[in-house]
Write a structure and sequence with these properties.
127 residues, alpha/beta, Rossmann fold, 5-stranded parallel beta sheet, 5 helices, 5 strands, globular
Amino acid sequence: MVPKILIADDEAHIRLLLEQTLEDLEDEGVQFLFAENGHQALEMIRMERPGLVFLDVMMPLLNGMAVCSAVKNEWAMKDIYIALLTAKGQDIDRNEGDAAGSDLYLTKPFDPDHIISIARKVLTMPA
C-alpha cells in the first residue's frame, strides 16, 4: 500500500510550504493529497485513507476540529494520524484539539525538520 499524506489548508502557500518541506518523501514513494476546505478534507480521508493528515484548524465550510472529530470520534478511524496545524496556541485551543481526537497539535509557524520527523515516524520510514 502506498503511504499517503493529506495536506488540508485553505491557504495555498501553506499547502505549498508543507509539500516542499516533505518533497523528499515523494521520492521514497509517498503520495501527497491536498484539500482546501473541510469538506474536501473529509471526502479525501474517506476515499483515500491517508496515514497522516496535516489539518488546518481554521478552514472554510467545515473547520479542522470538526473534521478531526468526525474522523476520530464518529468514523472511529483511529489508524489515521491527525496533526492539527493552527495559529491558536492557547491551552483552551489545545484542549479542544484533544477533545476532537487529534494525535498532535502544532502551532504555526512550524519547524520544517519537526514536520519531516513526524511524517517519517508516523509512516514508519527511516530517518
